[in-house]
Design brief:
Alpha-Beta Plaits, 5-stranded antiparallel beta sheet
Amino acid sequence: MTGRPRPGAAPDDGAEEPGVPGAPAEAAEAAAAEAAAAEDTAAEDTAPEDTAPEDTAPEETAPEETAPEDTAGAPGGPGPHPGGRSPRRRRDPLAAVLIGVLTLLLGFAFAVQVRNTGTDEDLAGAREEDLVTILDELDAEEARLSAQITSQRAALRELSSSGDQDAAALAAARDRVEALGILNGTVAAEGPGLLMTIRDPDGALRVADLLDAIQELRGAGAETMQIDGVRVGVSTPVTGEPGDLRVDGRPVDSPYEFVVIGSPQDLQTALAIPGGVVDRVGRQGGSVETTTADRVVVDALRPLDVPQYAQPADGDD
């Protein structure tokens, strides 16, 4: 039995025609081609479905695109706070303080009002005996406060009087110190007085003659004096020999210039007494000249005398 030739294929010369067993191979090739075509078609049909999420992605991100609309109402304002939360506004410290003070004042006023209201209600409902007791207590408190005021006023007057006495005592002590300073030669002094010049050309003036002149001036009321720029104090010594005299340890020489504070008339009268210093200096070949003045200045100073043996005595002994 001979087989049929395959359509479109020319039989080779001398070749045997393939039999029916070759048909399954052709069927397999056709099935493979159809399967490949089916896969290509399926890929084209499913491609739009794979991109569908990309088309709808903007709808999911729509809230993020509209987020800036929340801050559009505040031009120039701060940007969105990190994390999506708006920043807190800072409070003005002055406003906070004012609010606190007003709150305290309102609370205090309310407390006072409540207390007054409560007190009025208590008094309105109190018995007559209770009201009398309260009135007595108020009178006693008023008397106590009045006594305290009187006591404080008395203490104030005492302090004022004590202060005045202290001021007067201080002023008196200051005046005494100044007076003692003038007498002792520790402070300068000025006032009416006398200028006296003793000339001793022969150098015959002795210590006794100079001491007599000082004592006569003091006896006439001289308060302080200086000789040749040396201050004469209460304990000023006069030493030396004729022609080499010393006052308070400092040398003095003719002419001896005296500056004396005291009554000018009394001083001049005392020097003119017969047998006084003027007569003695004249008998020794010298001379004395005096001039009164309304104001003379004794500005030479000496250190304060510190007693070595004398001490203040206790008045009770």
